[in-house]
Amino acid sequence: MKIIRNILLVIALAVVACFGLIFYSFSRTIPLKDRQPLSGGAEQVKDGMVSVGIIPSADGQVILVDCGNDRKAKAILDALKQMGLGREAVKTILLTHAHPDHIAGCAVFPDAEVFAMAAEQSLLQGRTAARSPIGFLMGKKNSGIHVTRYLQDGDTFQRGNVMVTSYLIPGHTDGSAAYLAAGTLYLGDSADSAKDGSLLPAKRFFSNDIEQNHASLKRLAEKLKAQASEIQFMEFAHSGPLPGITPLLKFADNTPTKPPAQ
Predict the structure, then answer these.
(1) DSSP line for 79-108
(2) Contact by Cβ (8 Å): 191, 216
(3) What is the pTM of this model?
(4) CA-only gyration radius of the chain, Å
(5) Residue 36's CB: how many other CB atoms inside 10 A?
(6) Which domains, and CATH codes, for the chain?
(7) Helices (DSSP H) in 83-194: which residue ranges?
């Protein structure tokens, strides 16, 4: 009986510690607010504890960055309605990664083209599970999403009057993506905005490899340094946006390069 009690106590303490870490990580970030303006007429739409980017791409057409946590996509549909649009306006969906809180609403927009990084294909198709602690608990699951095109790092494509550039930034998941579109850099869960205006890396508990995430953000900063003046906002899935990319550049400057294994 004593052994069982001790086991239950250890489990309870582990659960409390996990929730404490999650609460602490979210308490450091800029809270999400609904319909935050971004560049190019885009908006950050709040869907519970996650956000979706809506980017006007042509007359009566928009691009979504992720699809949110709600299977009925109510927050997205409400935002579209306020823009005078319906679900048919969604012509393109850019997935930052395959975690359930970012893809649940995709089925509401069956006519949209869906883009994701090629390195995320096995997670989307349920052939592998995420390697994070949360991913281990969730296991493998086929998303059921038909991806129109799997992307490589640096791929660019035009949708309406918007040029999109995709960047592979593994660490949170193997195929985590950032997208630069209409002057805003969309980072998904690979980074967050801190209340002091700095950039935070991905949350460790939800990520496959936090060191890889740091290295990916550093490489991304190097790639974007030359066009820093053209990037007006950074958008994050679980926190409010930041102006410009100076916080990303500062994060890269303050992140040491991990020495190669001996």
Answers:
(1) HHHHTT--GGGEEEEE-S---HHHHGGGGG
(2) no
(3) 0.89
(4) 19
(5) 18
(6) 34-253 (3.60.15.10)
(7) 100-103, 121-124, 133-138
Give the count of beta carbons closer than 10 Å to the beta carbon of residue 20.
Answer: 10
* Long-range contacts at 153-158 (CB < 8 A, ≥ 24 apart): 153/117, 157/115
Give per-residue pLDDT as tens, 69-119.
999 999 999 999 999 999 999 999 999 999 999 999 999 999 999 999 999
Give bridge partners of residue 58 from the DSSP assignment: 61
Largest CA distance in the chain: 69
Query: In sequence order, what are the residues at sequence separation of 6 or more whose Cβ sits closer than 8 angstroms to the Cβ of residue 7?
Result: none
Tell me what pLDDT residue 93 has.
Answer: 98
Which pair of tokens denotes residue 110?
A: 């069956």
- Whole-angstrom distance, CA of residue 160 vs CA of residue 67: 20
The fraction of the chain above a pLDDT of 70, given in percent, is 87
Q: How far apart are CA 52 and CA 55, in angstroms?
A: 10
What separation in angstroms does the CA of 207 have from each of 36, 95, 133, 203, 214? 26, 17, 8, 6, 11
Alpha helices in 28-87 (DSSP H): 74-82
Tokens 């791929």 identify what position?
A: 155
